[in-house]
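Figure 2 data, in text form.
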Amino acid sequence: MNTIEELNAIAREELAKIKGKELGNKERMAIPQQEMPSRNPKERARQMAEVALGYTEEQAVVEANRCLQCKNKPCISGCPVNVQIPEFIAEIAKGEFKKAVDIIKQTSLLPAICGRVCPQEKQCQGQCTVGKVYKSAEKAVSIGRLERFVADWERENKKVTMPEIAAKTGKKVAVIGAGPAGLTVAADCARAGHSVTVFEAFHKAGGVMMYGIPEFRLPKAIVQEEIDNLKKLGVDFECNFLVGRTDTLDQLLTEKGFDAAFVGTGAGLPKFMNIPGENLIGVFSANEYLTRANLMKGYDTAHAATPIYEAKKVCVVGGGNVAMDAARMALRLGAEEVNVIYRRTRNEMPARIEEIAHAEEEGVVFRFLENPVEILGNEEGKVCGVKVLSYELGEPDASGRRSPVAIKGSEHIVETDAMIIALGNGSNPLLVKTTPGLNADAKGHISVDETQATSHAKVWAGGDIVLGAATVILAMGEGRKAAAGINAYLAK
């Protein structure tokens, strides 16, 4: 594994080869992809510090020169908020980093966050011509890493500028939920001149970016800075405010005098397996486990109000990014052995390839083609093991992934003293139940039209409460559409 100094030396050599030259597609394709520097796996597995260290200036310029500047711009079609990707990359290639980040901010308000946590290989990089030539989105132009680089460069060089704000309209907008969808709506409505108040059930704003994604993947100081920037735009935040309990949505629109509301409450209701033993001490949803660690700093045992359950052998069930986050967090909280149990193979895992690789480097063990059927407890009611079945892959299911088929008589026991269930989340029914006229489907996802307007007058919705569990950038895309709808409505 190369150090940051070694990687930068490689970048300087490449830069010397291309400096001052008019590059054709052949020359651009010959430029090697720049590897992201990261911390030593054995050391970082016990630290909360961010794992990926980000590109250096030289690396960013070299990587940007790999972009073919395609006339049809396929990468933009893969971006939920339509960032002008070739344009911002062209500015990086010239060393114009501030111009680059300003182009991104025309459509995406959280580049430092999206550059770190977006599944670019399934979105913009999945459409990149370079990636298609190499038959791998992993070998595409590293759009996410470049986005992260310019956002970090702007912040570290104290060059962050605030967007222009329109004249005050006298209109009030309530935003329910301070996650990526809600923060996007708050920014766009504030820029249009409306007074915006964000209502957040937790004691800190940021939603999943604050309580779900760990510090080692997304430093909380970066999320907090984005929230502080919104406060500079005049956005107010009311935390510890649970809409549907503290006040209903209708009360906000009548008694509190809000002219429009946006619901971005996310998908925070964990799904369980409904197998024997799930009520034992030491069984957690990934939501609870990560919230205790990230938001309540449960790892700080001397000061935490809700300390983390101590466990030396941890099993995590699931194959998505949240499962990777929980497994890697367990190592940092003192686990000596962490097993990820997943009923398909590595090829079917929905987690990002980079996250799986980082988990493996840090020592997480993957138990593929296995699935729990019972959680076992000791006489104290604590988890002491899990009975799992072995599987083989059968025919593809509706999503195209091959369905796992249980092998009869293959039950065996894996020793563990904590179980983390990371099988996704559903929608909390509270808001729909307490708001007459707000329609939702059978899964609790709020129904919206093409402008994100709901069946309830003056109410729009977006993000995971509409989509089901999705990504930060998809939630932001919905937030942008909803804000446009709200601003058009209030302009009338």
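Caption note: Residues 472-491 form the longest helix (20 residues).
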